[in-house]
Design brief:
The structure holds 2 protein chains of 2 kinds.
Chain A: E1 5-7, H1 11-32, H2 43-66, H3 79-86, H4 100-123, H5 141-169, H6 175-183, E2 185-187, H7 188-194
Antiparallel strand pairs in A: 1-2
Helix pairs in contact in A: 1-2, 4-5
Chain B: E1 10-12, H1 17-27, E2 31-34, H2 40-46, E3 53-56, E4 66-68, E5 72-76, H3 81-86, H4 88-93, H5 95-102, H6 107-112, H7 115-120, H8 126-129, H9 171-176, E6 180-185, E7 188-193, H10 194-197, E8 216-223, E9 230-236, E10 247-255, E11 261-269, E12 276-277, H11 279-285, H12 292-299, H13 315-329
Parallel strand pairs in B: 1-3, 2-3
Antiparallel strand pairs in B: 4-5, 5-8, 6-7, 6-8, 9-10, 10-11, 11-12
Classes of the chains: A mainly alpha, B alpha+beta.
Chain lengths: 211, 330
């Protein structure tokens, strides 16, 4: 292994990720356990975790817009080679900082997370909190029905995405990504084996001479 | 609202608990356990509940009767309220329960209505009863907990989306007497203290009790701890008979020879989805003289933390006065 470490995730981004993960797990457990017959006082934990997730996502969006490279998450023409490779036609070009699969996962999570958050925030109007009194007449009954269906659907799809995410995070050949999300770095060998340094838009060498 | 005739269902009348449990397992959530039937038949006629199979428990003799044990008293869940109100042992040792049972509904209903049914009955919120798709009915709104909602009978405490209250007159008594509830299912038997039997909307918004589809409440055990204590039960309702409580109070108190309150349990019904034990009141009066001053002081803390709805503010002074009388007059 090359001695050089490449910073993949800054501390603040790792903190965002893990707090987001904790909030999502709290939301999924409090949302689905009662449906499975496990009765407990879930509502308070659910909406507090939902607010936490909303704030974290908002923070992440602001950080991504002003401090991070949005380009690293975009699709490029070279992604076509990854698709061709999946179809058995030639080798895939190495991606930049994030592989096509990672970006697709991110965008899917983004879409359904925002759907769950948007509908969840509307549903907050149905409960009393220290800050407001409930108002179930905020929108029509039909629209409420739609809000509930979309919230539930987004949550269900979320479960599938998380299963996929965890599965790939713990696969042996992908474990260095999990380490990167825990400690922030990957080695130069791992980088050159899996990524194209020329397309890696925001890397900075961390510590020289350490393995 | 259709009130012409009930939709079709299969009626089963098992003679023993095992057969009833097998039927409950077979039909699962499509089964309906019927005790005295005083509530069930209304649900069916209103077509708000449409079970596939009705399991009538009234033929199970093992679920009936009052028995004295070394630990206290055992009451079969299918014992009628009239039997409980008239039972000499209950009247002598646990007059609180006899009084509460005698205040349920009307004489005709008490003759067929059972203690198990009274304890396990569903919420009386009229939006829910009218078959509206509220939270308790599996929907996604509460019609009573809104500024326009008719919520005169609803809760002061523990609202969590749903604002329904426990309608039972005997439930607060069971909590006051530290009763235990024996529940059978095909998986075995479990015993719960009374205050764990009732559950609020924060825990399960579609259930008033912990009973699952395959469960049967078989027995209520009342320990001898409070036998012969000073009791007080009072129910305030719009009508003196055949009505549900606006607020009721049940208390059991032990008083020393010098007039000092040694121990007390005091519980209010119809102010929360579960019987509300008044811990603050108990703490205030324990060790104090049983007199008007103590009762007045304790009453002032009875409704602490209440969050009244638009039309039920009157329940706060009502609750305070009932608590005052329970301590002063028991």
């Amino acid at each position: 292994m090359s001695s050089q470490r490449i910073e993949r995730h800054k501390l603040i981004d790792r903190a965002f990720h893990w707090v987001m993960a904790a909030a999502m797990f709290a939301l999924l457990i409090t949302g689905f356990a009662p449906k499975l017959g496990i009765s407990f006082e879930w509502l308070l934990v659910h909406w507090v975790a939902g607010l936490l997730l909303s704030l974290i996502v908002l923070g992440h969006i602001i950080r991504a817009l002003f401090w991070q490279s949005l380009r690293s998450m975009w699709f490029t023409a070279s992604d076509a080679t990854a698709v061709s490779s999946l179809l058995g036609k030639g080798d895939a070009a190495k991606p930049g900082k994030y592989s096509l699969a990672q970006r697709l996962m991110h965008h899917a999570v983004t879409f359904f997370c925002l759907a769950a958050i948007a509908t969840g925030l509307v549903m907050m109007a149905k409960i009393d909190s220290p800050l407001w009194t409930r108002d179930p007449y905020l929108i029509s009954a039909e629209t409420w029905g739609l809000v509930y269906v979309l919230h539930g659907l987004a949550a269900l799809i979320f479960v599938s995405l998380i299963v996929l995410h965890v599965y790939f995070a713990i696969r042996p050949e992908k474990l260095f990504y999990l380490r990167a999300m825990a400690f922030g770095w990957i080695s130069r060998d791992e980088m050159t084996a899996n990524h194209d340094p020329a397309l890696w838009t925001d890397h900075t060498p961390r510590r020289e001479g350490q393995s | 609202m259709t009130k012409d005739m009930m939709p079709k269902f299969d009626l089963f009348q098992p003679a023993d608990i095992e057969t009833a449990l097998k039927l409950l397992d077979k039909y699962g959530v499509k089964a309906w356990k019927m005790a005295g039937g005083q509530d069930s038949l209304d649900w069916f006629k209103d077509r708000a509940k449409r079970p596939e199979a009705v399991i009538d428990l009234s033929g199970i003799e093992a679920l009936k009767g009052v028995r004295e044990t070394e630990a206290g008293l055992e009451i079969g869940a299918m014992t009628t309220l009239a039997e409980i109100a008239a039972n000499p042992i209950i009247k002598e040792k646990f007059g609180l329960l006899a009084t509460a049972a005698s205040r349920v509904a009307s004489p005709q209903i008490r003759t067929v209505g059972t203690i198990g049914g009274n304890l396990s009955q569903d919420a009386r919120c009229w939006y829910y009863r009218a078959g509206m798709d509220c939270y308790r009915a599996g929907g996604n709104t509460c019609y009573a907990g809104t500024p326009q909602g008719m919520n005169r009978e609803h809760c002061l405490f523990g609202a969590s989306r749903c604002v329904a209250v426990t309608p039972s007159d005997t439930a607060p008594v069971m909590v006051a007497l530290e009763a235990e509830f024996v529940i059978r299912s095909s998986k075995g038997e479990r015993i719960l203290p009374a205050d764990k039997y009732f559950i609020g909307p924060a825990v399960n918004i579609t259930h008033m009790t912990v009973l699952e589809p395959g469960d049967i409440l078989t027995t209520i055990r009342i320990p001898s701890k409070w036998a012969g204590a000073k009791f007080y039960f009072e129910k305030v309702a719009d009508r003196n008979t055949w009505d549900f409580a606006l607020v009721n109070v049940a208390s059991a108190m032990k008083v020393k020879a010098d007039g000092v309150i040694e121990d007390i349990r005091i519980v209010c019904g119809a102010v929360e989805c579960v019987p509300r034990r008044l811990n603050a009141v108990e703490d205030i009066v324990k060790g104090s003289a049983k007199n008007d001053d103590t009762a007045t002081l304790a009453a002032s803390s009875a409704a602490r933390g209440a969050a009244p709805l638009n039309f039920n503010h009157f329940k706060i002074p009502l609750m305070e006065n009932l608590v005052k009388r329970a301590i002063r007059d028991s």
